[in-house]
Amino acid sequence: MKNFAELGVRLSHCLDENHLRHPNIEDKDAKLFTNDEVYREIRLKILWPGYYEFPFTRRINIRKGEMSKISLLFNVVMAIADFVKKIQSDRDCICERGLEMWKLTGRERLRVNELILTGIVHRGGPNWQPEIWCPAFT
C-alpha cells in the first residue's frame, strides 16, 4: 500500500456503498493469475476465534483465469462481511467460553467496520486465508 497510515484496508472503506473508497493499492489493476494457472477458483477459508465450530468457506471464481488485485480485495471483503452476517443471523452460533473478546454477536461485539484486512495468505492449492487485524482491543 502506498501512502497509507494503517496496516491494511479497513473493511468499512470497501463496504460503504455511499462513500466507496478505493484503497491506494500499488498496481491495483495488475492481474494476479494467468491463463496458465491450474485453478479456476480461489477457496477462501475463515476460522474465527470463538467460532471454530462454524468455519466459513467462500469460492471465488477467477474469471477467464484472470483477476485483478482490487477485484480480489473486494471479493475477500464481501466474504468476510457475509461470514459475520452468517454468524449474527444463526442463533446456534454461540461464541465459545473464554473467547468472548472475539464475539461477533450481542451488544458487546466486534463490528465489521473495526476490522482491517492486512493480507491474504496462500495455504496451498486453491486455498487462501485472510489475515484480519482488529484494532478495537485496548
Structure, briefly:
This protein is an alpha+beta fold. 19% of the residues lie in helices and 22% in strands.
Fold and architecture overview:
It is a single chain. The chain is an alpha+beta fold and 138 residues long. It has one domain (9-133). The protein is 19% helix and 22% strand. It has helices at 11-15, 69-89, and strands spanning 9-10, 41-46, 56-61, 116-124, 127-133. Strands 1-4-5-2-3 form a five-stranded mixed beta sheet.
Class from helix and strand fractions: alpha+beta
Unreliable sequence segments: none
Tally of alpha and pi helices:
2
Biggest sheet statistics: 5 strands, mixed
Approximately what portion of the residues adopt beta-strand conformation? 15-25%
Helix content: 10-25%
Based on CA atoms alone, the radius of gyration comes out at: 16 Å
Succession of helices and strands: EHEEHEE
Number of domains: 1
Task: Sum up the overall morphology in one term.
Answer: globular
Mean pLDDT: 83
User: What is the CA–CA distance across the termini?
Assistant: 25 Å
